[in-house]
Amino acid sequence: MSTPMWKRVIARILEALLAIVFLAPLVWVIICSFSPQAGSAQSDGWGINNYLTLFNYQAGLPTYLFNSIVVSLIAVVFSVVVCTLAGYSFSRFEYPGRNLGFMVTLSILMVPYASLLIPMMVWFKDIGLNDTLLGVGLVITLFQLPMSTFIMRNAFNAVPKDMEEAAMVDGCNSFQALVKILMPVVKPSMVTVGLLAFLEAWNNFMIPLYLSSSAKSTLPLAMVNMRQQTMGVIDYGATEAGVVILLIPCAILFLVLQKYYVKGFMAGAVKG
């Protein structure tokens, strides 16, 4: 039975209204980053002076972008590798403490990560990871583990064990079956885990604030340091330019990977 025309029209109108609600702030920020504003470098006429201010701030925009990219890549690589192996272990192997280990992993979600940053800062100083991009990336990975492991476990649960058993009959061990047979099947979930890790690392402010100095600042932290100018006046123009730069990689990645993102979240939705 087909849906009545009036219901389809109402649904499309509601979708358009929701799109406007979500897109309007983004469009407004982009326009304001080029428009004249008092107290900003672009005080007269339209132009790119706000972006030039951001580009030349202290160490320079390329340095902060490089730091953000390195931290994001570390978080993505470690999150995908660790959570894929953890999800495979929790899904496929029977061993004492498996369920307890899974519950302990999920329990990290219950801990406010701000409460752990000062102890981690002290510990990282002892082991030489304080004020390093590697340390920031590893801490971000830690807080990505619960949800990402949950996603990967459900993804592996949704794959029939017959595929893995057939590969083992042909001579594969568990690791070879994972790499050659299962990973291509759960690729959408792996992409989802990587995308979530990138978005968290790219936009994270709190962890770099505690664990890195100004020389190792990521772009969100540099933006906060830059936005307050002479006499406490906030440079909204440069701040909006920074928001646009932060937005571009996230929007591109999401548009390119959205089909995997949707499939990744749907994997294991029925069989979990």
Pick out its properties.
MetI-like fold, 12 helices, 272 residues, mainly alpha, globular, 0% strand
CATH topology: MetI-like fold
The assigned CATH architecture is Orthogonal Bundle
CATH class: Mainly Alpha
Largest sheet: none
| Helix share, percent | over 70%
Low-confidence stretches: 268-272
Strand content: under 5%
CATH homolog superfamily: MetI-like
Give the class from helix and strand content and strand pairing: mainly alpha
Shape: globular
Assembly classification: single chain
Radius of gyration (CA) equals 23 Å
Task: Give the total of domains.
Answer: 1
DSSP helical segment count: 12
What's the pLDDT, averaged over the residues? 82
Q: Sketch the topology as an H/E string, one letter per element.
A: HHHHHHHHHHHH
Account of the protein in words:
- Helices cover 74% and strands 0% of the residues.
- The chain has helices at residues 5-34, 49-55, 61-92, 98-107, 114-127, 133-157, 161-169, 174-185, 187-203, 206-211, 219-227, 236-266.
- It is globular and about 75 Å long.
- With 272 residues, the protein is mainly alpha-helical.
- The chain has one domain (51-266): MetI-like (MetI-like fold, Orthogonal Bundle).
- The longest helix has 32 residues, at 61-92.
- Residues 65-257 form the ABC transmembrane type-1 domain.
- It is found in: Cell membrane.
- The chain crosses the membrane at residues 64-88, 100-124, 136-156, 177-199, 236-257.
